[in-house]
Amino acid sequence: MYQYDGHDQAFVAARAAEFRDQVARRLAGQLSEDEFKPLRLKNGLYLQLHAYMLRVAIPYGVLSSGQMRTLAHLADNYDRGYGHFTTRQNIQYNWTELKDVPDMLDILAEAGMHAIQTSGNCIRNVTTDAFAGAAGDEEVDPRATCELLRQWSSLHPEFAFLPRKFKIAVIGAAEDRAAMKFHDIGLRAKPDVQRPRYDIWVGGGQGRTPRVAQLFEADVPFERLLPTLDAMMRVYNLHGRRDNKYKARIKILVAEMGLDAYRDEVYADMAERDPAAFAVAGKEYDRIAAFFDRGPVAPIDDVPVAGEGAFAEWLDQNVSAHKVPGHAVVTISLKAKGAIPGDATGEEMRLVADLADDYSAGEIRVTHRQNLVLPFVPQSALATLYGRLVEAGLATGNVGLTSDIISCPGLDYCALATARSIPIAQALSDRLREREAKARAAGVTVKGPTLNISGCINACGHHHAANIGILGLTKAEEESYQITLGGRADGGAAVGEILGPGFTAEEVPDAVEKIIEAWEANRLEGESFTDAYQRLGKAVFKAAVYEEAPRVAA
Amino acid sequence: MAKQRVPKGPSVLTANDLLTGTIVYWTGDDWSASMHDALRADDEASRAALEAAARTEEDANRVVGAYLFALDPETGAPVALRERQRLGGPSIILPISTPRAA
After folding, report:
1. Buried-most residue among A158, A207, A296, A548 (CB within 10 A)?
2. Given an 8 Å threshold on Cβ–Cβ distance, is B81 in contact with A478?
3. Helices A101-110 and A65-78 sit at what angle, rounded to 10 degrees?
4. Cβ of A433 and B102 within 8 Å?
5. How many Å apart are CA A163 and CA A241, to the nearest integer?
6. Interchain pair A33, B64: CB under 8 A
7. What count of Cα atoms within 13 Å lies in the side-chain half-sphere of residue B87?
8. Rounded-to-integer distance, Cα A173 and Cα A171, Å
9. Mind listing the domains of chain A with CATH numbers?
10. B45 — contact with chain A (CB < 8 Å)?
């Protein structure tokens, strides 16, 4: 993985020192909250319902075992013993105190980490395929591009005060495991002679106006990547709306201007600038790529692995094909029955760090579906690894099943939330794990449908992109949950459609179960949920959910 | 400063502690972590006094985001879902004390 050099290290250390000074000035009364708020947000520090929350960047979701131990240390010593892995491949600490944050940032800096640009109207942490550098279907390792973009976008002076936040995702395989088309800019890296070329997508996003990204340009050569992104950002920065935060994302600009007009302006901007300004990018890309090209594992003989019972389920669901013979990609589910999606205790983080050292070349990934990945596991170690996960209660074999739920923190933590998400996820998890166990016992293995839950319209829980999405709202000062169907985050990205009137929290598990039963009853052999939904339409599912008890519109 | 509408009925003043972020309620001369200690304003003049206290306390850098919220006149409980959730704390069992099931 990428290693900080002296420049990187000095940069994050200086930033931590700067924030220490800002906190001291705030506590001394020299900065008002209005002055301090943008500074703390630029360092990932939010004030949530019950406490300050620190969001730490995990660049493109890649962690060393040592960095994971640092995260565990912070959880145990500066929080309440746990952290929450997010849909942006970051980690959040829910119970931090303002006075402690400078120390936390110093500790992170020592481990080559930071919280820079995890909030605010700037380019956020670049995300990618959690299987990058390991996936069996990978064409280009996207990590070098991600690191290049991290360096380009970190404290970029021109893009520090954008109309709104800006999210970029990069993939390098045919299968999209990073919800790329739901980003402001999405890149698909493809192989080329020396360095990759890119399909550039623009204008995707979720929130209150969900949009699937449109193709801006295909097969952009590496030399034009940064000049193009730079111009795309500049046109957005100039024309993106600043009068209405709900219309300030690039998806709205592209929709209002039209893709062609936006593209014309970008090319006109590029024509006025000297591309030589980015000439260094090629060399820097090669320097970065060298860290990843020295792959941590060499080919070995393939070892067939088979098991029974829960081990077989885990092998089927949590173990994926690797690009290097003799190896496997292992996903550790943070979605045990009744668990809080994405939460891990300090003890669990340390165990995962130990497992990474013992079986995965010391490397860990965070997935946008809020699980952890050991990307470089020898097939011969799978049984031993599984045994250690069982001991730690981390061996749930449900990755890709419906109980592998995405959930935002919701109104249990979040100041923006309009309803709780976590208790809904827990109730559904209890119900769905029982269904999955029965299906497994009957010899039926079914992938999906995906199930995501957001506690407000901002959609951190990716409900728009789920086969079954749940959105929590406040109606007459009570929680109400809206269900959407047919969304998907993969290459065929689509926004889910609202099924009908909302539900109380207690009604949600029954409604979801009826939707799954309607799919099971009506699907063709091997038909996925989204394919069935497209073929059957909403009516079948609506009838299944509402026909017994017509409801008052929420 | 939080930009919240001042409630028309009975209300109390709340904020987050500057240092810790903890939810606090105004007692009339200090902040308490318990809403039971909160000073209740039942008329316009006392609500204005709470508003003034909010500004003074924010300016003194003791709290962040001070605002008034409405109470149910009969039960004395917060009307808004958000305030009920703030009062009750996270409604879930925190992961540190939750062993994982299969």
Report:
1. A207
2. yes
3. 170
4. yes
5. 6
6. yes
7. 20
8. 6
9. 9-110 (3.90.480.20), 134-292 (3.30.413.10), 309-392 (3.90.480.20), 406-546 (3.30.413.10)
10. no
B99 interaction partners in chain A (CB closer than 8 Å): 393
What is the chain A residue with the closest CA to B59?
A32
Residue B59 maps to a domain = yes
A292: helix, strand or coil: helix
Residues A204/A213, Cβ–Cβ less than 8 Å: yes
- Both tokens of A361, joined, read 């070349």
Query: CA A184 to CA A166: how far, in whole Å?
Result: 6
Helix (H, G, I), strand (E, B) or coil at A256: helix
Number of domain units in chain B: 1
CA dist., res. A268 & res. A379, Å (int) = 52
Residues 6+ apart with CB under 8 A from A286: A195
Helix (H) or strand (E) holding A377: strand A372-378
User: Radius of gyration (Cα) for chain A, nearest Å?
Assistant: 23
| Contacts for A390 with CB less than 8 Å, ≥ 6 apart | A310
pLDDT in tens, A444-487: 877 779 999 999 999 999 999 999 999 999 999 999 999 999 99
Q: Do A97 and B65 touch (CB under 8 A)?
A: no
Q: Is residue B1 part of a domain?
A: no
Nearest CA in chain B to A394: B100
8 A C-beta contact, residue A447 and residue A453 = no
Q: Tell me whether B75 touches chain A (CB under 8 Å).
A: no
Range of the domain at B30: 11-89
Please identify which residue in the block is written with the tokens 């769905």. A432
Supply the angle between the helices A222-239 and A259-271 in degrees, to the nearest 10. Answer: 110
Q: Quick one: angle between helices A529-536 and A508-522, nearest 10?
A: 80
Contact A56, A91 (CB under 8 A): yes
Structure tokens at B7: 């409630």
Residue B5, in any domain of the structure? no
Which whole-number Å values give the CA distances from A385 to A287, A323, A378, A428, A544, in the listed order? 34, 20, 10, 28, 42
Three-state SS at A474: strand
For tokens 């598990």, what's the residue?
A509
Q: How many CB atoms lie within 10 A of CB A60?
A: 27
CB atoms within 10 A of CB A244: 9
Ramachandran assignment for B68, one of left (phi > 0), alpha (psi -120 to 50 degrees), beta (any other) = beta
Q: Cα dihedral angle (B6, B7, B9, B13), rounded to 10 degrees?
A: -70
Q: Which pair of structure tokens corresponds to residue A133?
A: 């550098």
Cis peptide before A449 (omega within 30 of 0): yes
ipTM: 0.92
Per residue in A185-206, pLDDT tens? 999 999 999 999 999 999 999 9
Q: Is residue B101 part of a domain?
A: no
Residue corresponding to tokens 């145990």: A76
For residue A78, with 0-12 CB atoms within 10 Å meaning exposed, 13-18 middle and 19 or more buried, which class applies? Answer: middle
Question: Nearest CB to B96: which of A81, A422, A477?
Answer: A81
Identify the sign of the CA torsion A546, A492, A183, A374: positive
Is the separation of the CB atoms in A68 and A356 below 8 Å? yes
Rounded CA-CA distance A536/A198 in Å is: 36
Phi and psi at A323, nearest 5°, equal: -75, -20
pLDDT digits (tens, 9 = 90+) for A91-118: 999 999 999 999 999 999 999 999 999 9
Residue type, A98: L
Give residue B2's pLDDT band: very low, low, confident or very high (50, 70, 90).
Answer: very low
Which pair of structure tokens corresponds to residue A512? 């979801």
What is the predicted pLDDT for the residue at B95?
A: 86
